[in-house]
Write a structure and sequence with these properties.
With 339 residues, the chain is an alpha/beta fold. It has a single domain, classed as Aldolase class I (TIM Barrel, Alpha-Beta Barrel), CATH 3.20.20. It is built from 12 helices and 10 strands. The strands form 3 sheets. The protein has a 6-stranded parallel sheet with strand order 1-2-3-6-7-8. Helix 8 links the parallel strand 7 and strand 8. Helix 7 packs across helix 8, helix 8 runs parallel beside helix 9 and helix 9 crosses helix 10. The N and C termini lie far apart (47 Å). This is Probable fructose-bisphosphate aldolase class 1.
Length: 339
């Protein structure tokens, strides 16, 4: 595949002040969120919800791309416009989630490994023809007693590298997503240690697989204390620890890091990203932006509630969160924007 095309796509994905909307929830995840709000869990409701998101006026100012799920990339607006075409026409790159979920790691039931490599080459070809120009694969790393094991980290890093190689061969820019979960009572310092080890192993595997680093995007988690840890790091402490970890492990040739929110509260995820871009303004070799799912969508979903009458208000909620995170990607966010 044309390396120049992949480079151009990667650069477009981290365009200044823009981020990536993660709208790649699986059936079970989407239905679970709908159930919590009393929204019917049907394919049509999922389609209508996604149409509400993708047709929100003005979001192309803030989103460079949208990650889709297999169901979503095959869906269309009520008027019959395929979602990939709708996004492309708006100047937003369509992407596709390629992994098939994290499953228990053999011989280590408390750890996970992501599956989905079987048949991946053919799926990439199909999705490219459907309009996808980038992809995502998520690895899940849990911090706990005597975990993560080196075996778990290496298995996930190897899968990420194989996925990334197939993507670049097939014309898709790979988003490499090694997520270290917030679940647990670990300290900020322990989170830093695990993030550092994970990222070092991931880039070692990417190097061995021959990945062109200027044709990929990293989607890391932030270095955060476990949710059950009695001592939580400040916004500034999280920002400094996260960037230090990235500087130690991420080569300068990677165009950008688009963070996942990982269960953070909406405004907290925005504040962390903003602090990184303010504190380290002009000092970093790669762009730092967002690729949030729930932290962008939750307010819109709660406003929409499955009702056509609420579409405009829900789209305003999405626009607001996108605008705040766009400002954070520039280091220009202020909590006063939330009012």
């Amino acid at each position: 595949m044309d390396a120049n095309e992949l480079k151009a796509t990667a650069q477009a994905m981290i365009a200044q002040g823009k981020g990536i909307l993660a709208a790649d929830e699986s059936f079970s995840t989407a239905n679970k969120r709908f159930q919590q709000l009393g929204i019917p869990t049907t394919e049509e409701m999922r389609r209508a919800y996604r149409e509400m998101l993708f047709t929100a006026p003005g979001i192309n100012q803030f989103f460079s791309g949208v990650i889709l799920f297999d169901e979503t990339i095959r869906q269309s607006t009520k008027s019959g416009i395929p979602f990939p075409q709708l996004l492309t026409d708006a100047g937003i790159l369509p992407g596709i989630k390629l992994d098939e979920g994290a499953k228990p790691l053999a011989k280590s039931p408390h750890e996970l490994v992501t599956e989905g490599l079987d048949g991946l080459r053919d799926r990439i070809t199909e999705y490219y023809k459907m309009g996808a120009r980038f992809a995502k694969w998520r690895a899940v790393i849990t911090i706990g007693q005597q975990i993560p094991s080196s075996r778990c980290i290496e298995a996930n890093a190897h899968a990420l590298a194989r996925y990334a190689a197939l993507c670049q061969d097939g014309g898709l820019v790979p988003i490499v997503e090694p997520e270290v979960l917030m679940d647990g009572d670990h300290t900020l310092e322990r989170s830093f240690e695990v993030h550092q080890e994970v990222l070092n192993v991931v880039f070692e595997q990417l190097y061995r697989a021959g990945i062109d680093l200027d044709q990929m995007i990293l989607k890391p988690s932030m270095v955060i204390s476990g949710v059950d840890c009695p001592e939580q790091g400040s916004i500034e402490a999280v920002a400094k620890a996260t960037v230090k970890c990235l500087l130690d492990a991420v080569p300068a040739s990677v165009p950008g890091c688009a963070f996942l929110s990982g269960g953070q509260a909406d405004e907290t995820a925005t504040a962390h990203l903003n602090a990184m871009n303010q504190i380290f303004a002009g000092e970093l070799p790669w762009a730092l932006t967002f690729s949030y799912g729930r932290a962008l969508q939750q307010a819109a979903m709660q406003t929409w509630m499955g009702e056509d009458a609420n579409v405009a208000a829900a789209q305003k909620a999405l626009y607001h969160r996108a605008q705040c995170n766009s400002a954070a990607a520039l280091g220009q966010y202020d909590s006063g924007m939330e009012k």
